[in-house]
Write a structure and sequence with these properties.
The protein is an alpha/beta fold and 649 residues long. Helices cover 45% and strands 14% of the residues. The strands form five sheets. The chain has a seven-stranded parallel β-sheet with strand order 5-6-4-7-8-3-9, sandwiched between helices. Strands 10-15-14-11-13-12 form a six-stranded parallel β-sheet, sandwiched between helices. The chain has a two-stranded antiparallel sheet with strand order 1-2. Bound molecules: adenosine-5'-diphosphate (ADP) and magnesium ion (MG).
């Protein structure tokens, strides 16, 4: 490997500073993007001004560029600590595609590869070197970082340091000691998508960040559609969803290994292009499944939450949760793996109230296995409660997620199932009084009941249980007869969510009054909630909206992506060319160009190298490598179409 790499307009040499290059030039000319995403410029500036930083941005928000651009501006080699082998491989592939010298060190290397990389690194030949946390304290690595100039130490997926995070990784705890062995101490830049206060504090303290610049960007991903559905038959609905998305790449998340295997078997039998991943599979199988998915040999991945961290496959266009995950944090991170390239994508949760019980069981099991103390278990139960609110909410789903992350948002996004399903604001003041009174009447008899039983009492069910417990004698028995049970249930959920009622107990959750219930009964204020009109989710599957509608309605398309004027045929041909180039280069196709880039290319239809550079994601190196092949295809396509149009006339 040479000591410098010529890449388009740039010559990078690990030991040369490039004060003339500002970060925007690099973004534009190297990476081919026309504007920074939210937070990127500030974080890069803070790093360049010599601050330690902590960047908290959502999955797909563009954290990598925040440390890759400084690597090109600073003297020396940037060390990036990253938790997953697949992530490192992917990033190094992508950097090489951009003409940036990079390598990784982890347990997947042969001895020969390992020493080759060490030697090249010792000669300052890389701008970026990824290292697995477990490898940090190898004598070779310590020698290396003590002998070269380390421009910046980066900790990606920094939440792995905290046991409050969902991906705790013990080796991350050694990073601070590792940093102390490097003299002079390089600045430290850390990144995560996890925004809770505890995790943030753990990162700052345990990494030893000094007076860090901390930036939390907006968590909204406007290209993502959020849907919650409560189908009577989950499998049937899943099959429908997959058929509507034929040829697209997607992930189906399940809570347990068993459901992964069952779904995989069922869908494979029906000839869907599926593969699967969970921690119980052996290394070779997991590796193969992952590669099949990354290289689009199998377009649908069925997995537990063991799959995905560090999977930067940018063309995942849907994430379906077959079961409800245990907290909003995990949900958003997993769902956020869709649409990383900024193209419209769908995140759909198939919810069944049994999911709550499965999750409670899994949380308790972790306590029995001694993994967590009781305060952590309590906290986990609370997080599960928040997730359940999301699944049963009739509010704008996006605003629920954003408010969970502490971001005030508008109560209508227009791109989630609740906003799309012609919801209307209805006055529930009288119904709320009836429901709350019922809870009080029960309490007077020293009884507390679950939601289902309260529904039964209010609607006047004649079940034996009610008769045996003399509940038909309550004054509130049957006062809501005729109300649709699903609708009533939604109102109860709404009252709990707004704290007019509360839930107590986990084994047999029962509804109890709160301080707000008392005030409500006394003051009888007006109360309204958003409720679907005639079509109540829970009684029927939510009707699927047309894909075109999402493309057009998806609010604020990301920077650099053209409006979707679309020639499907050209797009397919460009995709084929990309896939061929990818398989020749033995890299996943999204490493050559993301789907978003190809869509932009379809819309702009460039026929010269200069026009090609205008495509989002095309920088100087990709222009040099690919302009000819793609513009030639487009030229021929246009010529053929021109002829055909001529004949038609
Ligand atoms: P994460 O924050 O999850 O680590 P990545 O760094 O993997 O996100 O970026 C996600 C995707 O967004 C990548 O495909 C990347 O090329 C793209 N991206 C990053 N920054 C920009 C930008 N400024 N303009 C357009 N696309 C961008
Ligand atoms: Mg990342």
């Amino acid at each position: 490997m040479r000591n410098s790499v010529f890449s388009g307009n740039f010559v990078y040499d690990a030991c040369t500073v490039k004060p003339m290059q500002d970060s925007y030039n690099i973004l534009k000319e190297q990476f081919g993007f026309s504007s920074f995403r939210q937070g990127q410029a500030q974080l890069i500036d803070a790093i360049m001004s010599g601050r330690d930083v902590l960047g908290i941005m959502p999955t797909g928000g563009g954290k990598s560029l925040c440390y890759q651009i400084p690597a090109l501006m600073l003297e020396g080699t940037e060390i990036v600590i990253s938790p997953l082998i697949s992530l490192m491989k992917d990033q190094v592939n992508a950097l090489e595609e951009e003409g940036i010298p990079a390598a990784f060190i982890n347990s997947s290397l042969s001895a020969q590869e390992y020493y080759g990389i060490l030697q090249a690194a010792g000669k300052n030949q890389y701008k970026i070197l990824y290292i697995a946390p477990e490898s940090l304290f190898k004598a070779d690595i310590i020698n290396l970082v003590q002998s070269i100039r380390v421009s910046l130490l980066v900790v990606d997926e920094a939440h792995c340091i905290s046991q409050w995070g969902h991906d705790f990784r013990p080796a991350y705890k050694n990073i601070k000691a590792f940093l102390e062995m490097i003299n002079p101490r390089p600045h430290l830049a850390s990144f995560t998508a996890t925004a809770t206060r505890q995790v943030r504090e753990d990162i700052i303290r345990m990494l030893g960040l000094e007076n860090p610049f901390v930036l939390v960007t907006g968590f909204d991903r406007s290209n993502l559609y959020f849907g919650v559905e409560k189908p009577e038959n989950r499998n049937a609905r899943l099959i429908e969803l997959l058929k509507e998305r034929k040829g697209q790449s997607g992930i189906i998340y399940c809570s347990t290994r068993k459901s992964v295997e069952e779904l995989h078997e069922m869908l494979e039998r029906k000839s869907f292009p599926v593969t699967m991943y969970h921690a119980g599979l052996d290394d070779v199988t997991r590796h193969k499944s992952q590669d099949d998915f990354l290289y689009d040999r199998k377009t649908v991945m069925i997995a537990t939450n063991a799959f995905g961290m560090g999977i930067d496959k940018s063309n995942v266009s849907f994430v379906i949760h077959y079961q409800m995950p245990k907290n909003i944090e995990s949900y958003y991170q997993e769902a956020g793996r869709a649409g990383r390239d900024g193209a419209a994508a769908d995140c759909i949760l198939l919810y069944n109230s049994q999911d709550v019980r499965i999750n409670q069981f899994l949380i308790k099991q972790s306590q029995n296995e001694g993994e967590a103390d009781s305060s952590i278990i309590e906290q986990k139960m609370e997080l599960l409660r928040q997730m359940t609110f999301y699944a049963s909410s009739s509010d704008c789903l996006r605003s629920r997620i954003l408010s969970y992350f502490g971001e005030p948002g508008s109560s209508y996004c227009g791109n989630c199932s609740n906003c799309k399903d012609n919801v209307e604001e209805i006055d529930i003041s009288v119904d709320a009084l009836k429901i709350i009174s019922c809870v009080y009447r029960l309490l007077e008899r020293n009884r507390k009941m679950g939601k289902a039983m309260i529904c039964n009492i209010l609607t006047g069910s004649r079940s034996e249980k009610i008769q045996n417990a003399y509940l038909h004698e309550l004054s509130t028995y049957g006062i809501m007869a005729g109300t649709d049970a699903a609708r009533l249930r939604k109102m109860i959920d709404f009252l709990i969510e707004k704290e007019y009622l509360a839930v107590e107990g986990t084994d047999y959750p029962v509804v109890i009054p709160t301080e707000k219930s008392r005030l409500f009964i006394k003051e009888k204020p007006k109360l309204t909630m958003m409720m679907p009109g005639i079509n109540i989710p829970g009684t029927k599957p939510v009707p699927r909206r047309e894909k075109e509608v999402i493309l057009i309605k998806a609010a604020k398309p990301s920077a650099g992506i053209s409006p979707p004027v679309f020639d499907e045929q050209l797009y397919e041909q460009l995709k084929k060319l990309r896939n061929r180039l990818a398989s020749e280069a033995k890299v996943p196709s999204y490493i050559i160009f993301s789907d978003a880039s190809l869509k932009d290319m379809t819309a702009k239809a460039p026929v010269t190298a200069v026009e090609f550079l205008e495509v989002s994601g095309v920088g100087a190196v990709k222009q040099e490598r690919y302009a000819y092949a793609f513009t030639e295809l487009i030229r021929q396509y246009k010529a053929r179409r021109g002829n055909k149009n001529g004949e038609d006339q």
